[in-house]
Specification:
Elements (H helix, E strand, L loop, with lengths): L5 E4 L6 E2 L8 H7 L6 H6 L5 H12 L3 H14 L2 E2 L1 H9 L4 E5 L3 H10 L8 E4 H4 L4 H12 L8 E5 L2 H9 L3 E4 L3 H9 L6
Parallel strand pairs: 1-4, 1-6, 4-5, 6-7
Antiparallel strand pairs: 2-3
Helix pairs in contact: 3-4
């Protein structure tokens, strides 16, 4: 196995609990469920920008698009629940690293600056900018943009979705299926991950 020379980090449910954007109220969680009908992928690949996404949701919720955007921005700025050990490890920047995420324009325009994520990694690759939700393609783009002459086998993807990890391994990379903050801590401290 090749030595790990860079880390590729998923964002939602890897660095933080991705439900932060909606809060815990049943109305917002019901909206979150609408991602199952494809609107989430449209938002995350720039078929819809945040304003258009909010307009789509407003009809389902009986709220104005402006109030939906305001809610999402406020939650994204003030209510992100970071996984403590994992986020601290990420911010320590042990190796060259990238965020590789399926996320909409709101991620780049609000979340990244609000939490100073760009200072923690050399590259941020998002589905909305590259117009694909295929994580293995996004990982390959991250390696290319890191400009370190890396092979996929030298890049470790840390992601909560097993399918994403498997796809990256299938493309020649290394992967760690993220489950919990404590499991990640044990994997690092116990030497399972040679980072």
């Amino acid at each position: 196995m090749s030595p790990i020379r860079c880390l590729l980090w998923d964002f939602g449910d890897t660095l933080c609990d991705e439900r932060f954007i909606w809060g815990t109220g049943p109305e917002w969680m019901e909206v979150y469920g609408t991602f199952d009908d494809g609107i989430g992928d449209q938002w995350c690949t720039s078929e819809l920008d945040t304003a258009a996404f909010a307009t789509e949701l407003s009809a389902r919720m009986g709220r104005s698009p402006a109030s939906i955007v305001e809610h999402m921005v406020e939650r994204s700025t003030n209510h992100v629940h970071w996984y403590e050990y994992t986020y601290r490890f990420f911010r320590a920047h042990h190796l060259p690293q990238a965020i590789v995420t399926v996320n909409p324009d709101l991620f780049s325009e609000v979340i990244v600056p609000a939490h100073d994520l760009a200072s923690c990694c050399e590259v941020i690759v998002t589905s909305w900018e590259d117009r694909t939700v295929d994580k293995s393609i996004l990982c390959a783009l991250a390696i290319e943009r890191l400009a370190l002459e890396l092979e996929p086998a030298e890049a470790l993807l840390i992601d909560n979705k097993r399918a994403n990890v498997d796809a990256w391994i299938g493309a020649g990379g290394q992967g760690y299926h993220y489950t919990t903050d404590d499991a990640f801590r044990r994997a690092v401290e116990g030497g399972e991950l040679a980072i």
